[in-house]
Amino acid sequence: MAAMATKKVLVVDDEESIREIYRRELQTRGYQVSSASDGEEGLLKAGEDAPDIVLLDIMLPKMSGIDVLKALKENQLTKNIPVLLLTNLGEETIIKEGFELGADGYLLKVSYTPAQVVDEVSKFLSGESS
């Protein structure tokens, strides 16, 4: 578990309660966590903090999650950071677009508890994700 203590996760979600729940759950498991409340801030923090993975809400103010994803993947500094999209929508076209732009996965917030989201992050970072 000590190796995970150095793993950094960036949570980008406009709902403070969601950010806080994920932060607590991730920190409990030994991750360093930073967060952003909108797309612009998320993009800035991804460049500054060099996270090991980004949990990115699709519906964000200022800049949509899809626009943030596109910008992350076009930037030399951030293009290799894995991105898991978070959504309340089962919107097939948005999810498909996310994958086409380089998303590494997506999670429906309503289908996963915070602990299960962190399980998925852990699996992904350990190379066990499918």
TrEMBL record:
Any one GO cellular component localisation term in the record: protein-DNA complex
Pfam families in alphabetical order = Response_reg (PF00072)
Q: InterPro entries, from UniProt? A: CheY-like_superfamily (IPR011006), Sig_transdc_resp-reg_receiver (IPR001789), WalR-like (IPR039420)
Q: What is this protein called?
A: Response regulatory domain-containing protein
Q: Does the keyword Mitochondrion apply?
A: no
Q: Which PANTHER family match?
A: REGULATOR OF RPOS (PTHR48111), TWO-COMPONENT RESPONSE REGULATOR ORR33 (PTHR48111:SF1)
Record-linked CDD domains: REC_OmpR
Q: Highest lineage ranks of the organism?
A: Bacteria, Candidatus Woykeibacteriota
